[in-house]
Specification:
Elements: H1 3-11, H2 48-74, H3 78-101
Length: 102
């Protein structure tokens, strides 16, 4: 620990600037973080029927990925089988998130 660190700890955290902002002015030292996420007023929640349709498309594509994974596994292409299974899992995951989060 250096003398400068001791001096900082004696002054308190509010009086010091982060090490990366040594040359910043006092207004730039501590950014303001909003209390809740800022959402554009133009963003609307999708209707449930639309989310259901997108989830159905995701399930269809996920099943196609699963078919490729099974075919690749039985064909001896283990890398392709694993990659297709991961792709199917990710597609199903996003379909489920579409239903839940909108």
């Amino acid at each position: 620990m250096t003398d400068r660190d001791d001096e900082r700890s004696r002054r308190g955290a509010d009086d010091t600037l982060p090490p990366s902002d040594r040359h910043a002015g006092p207004r730039m030292a501590h950014p303001v973080v909003p209390k809740r996420p800022v959402r554009s007023p133009a963003v609307e929640v999708r209707p449930f029927i639309e989310r259901l349709g997108m989830a159905a498309v995701a399930v269809t594509i996920g099943l196609l990925f699963a078919g490729v994974a099974v075919a690749a596994w039985f064909g001896g292409e283990l890398f392709l089988a694993v990659m297709a299974a991961i792709g199917g899992f990710m597609t199903l995951w996003v379909g489920a998130l579409t239903l839940v989060r909108g």
